[in-house]
C-alpha cells in the first residue's frame, strides 16, 4: 500500500501520495503559493535595478532569443542526456557579480527550475550572494 501524507493546505486532513503537495481540492494552492513567494521576493528582496532590468524590453527579447536557440530545453539536463523543458534564462555569471554581462548572450543558459535552483545555490556559495 502506498505511503500517504496529509495535504499541505492548513486545516485540510485529506490524504495524498507522498510526492504530492496538495489534494485535488487544493491543487491550485501550489500556483497561488508560488505567485505569492514571487510577489514577496520582488517587493522585499529584489533590488530595484535588477527588477527594472528583468522587466526591460531588451531582457525579454534576449530571453526569448535564448529560449529559441536552445529549443526551449534545459541545457544542464541535456548535458546529462535528459530531455526536460527549460523555463528560466539564467545568467552564468550573476548580474550581482558583473552587471556588464547582463545582456551578453554567451553569459546566459536556459534551465529547468530544478537546475536553476541548484545553480543559484552554487552561486550563493561561490559568490556569497543572498
TrEMBL record:
Residues 74-122 form the HNH domain. Signal peptide: none annotated. The keyword Hydrolase applies. Gene3D superfamilies: 1.10.30.50. It comes from the Bacteria. GO terms for molecular function: endonuclease activity. This is Putative HNH nuclease YajD.
Amino acid at each position: 500500500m502506498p505511503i500517504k501524507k496529509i495535504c499541505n493546505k492548513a486545516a485540510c486532513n485529506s490524504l495524498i501520495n507522498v510526492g504530492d503537495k496538495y489534494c485535488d481540492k487544493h491543487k491550485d494552492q501550489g500556483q497561488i503559493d508560488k505567485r505569492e513567494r514571487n510577489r514577496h521576493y520582488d517587493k522585499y528582496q529584489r533590488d530595484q535595478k535588477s527588477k527594472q532590468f528583468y522587466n526591460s524590453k531588451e531582457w525579454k527579447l534576449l530571453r526569448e532569443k535564448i529560449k529559441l536557440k536552445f529549443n526551449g530545453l534545459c541545457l544542464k539536463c541535456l548535458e546529462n542526456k535528459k530531455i526536460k523543458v527549460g523555463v528560466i534564462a539564467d545568467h552564468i555569471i550573476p548580474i550581482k557579480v558583473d552587471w556588464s554581462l547582463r545582456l551578453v548572450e554567451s553569459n546566459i543558459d536556459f534551465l529547468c527550475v530544478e537546475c536553476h535552483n541548484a545553480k543559484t545555490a552554487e552561486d550563493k556559495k561561490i559568490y556569497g550572494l543572498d
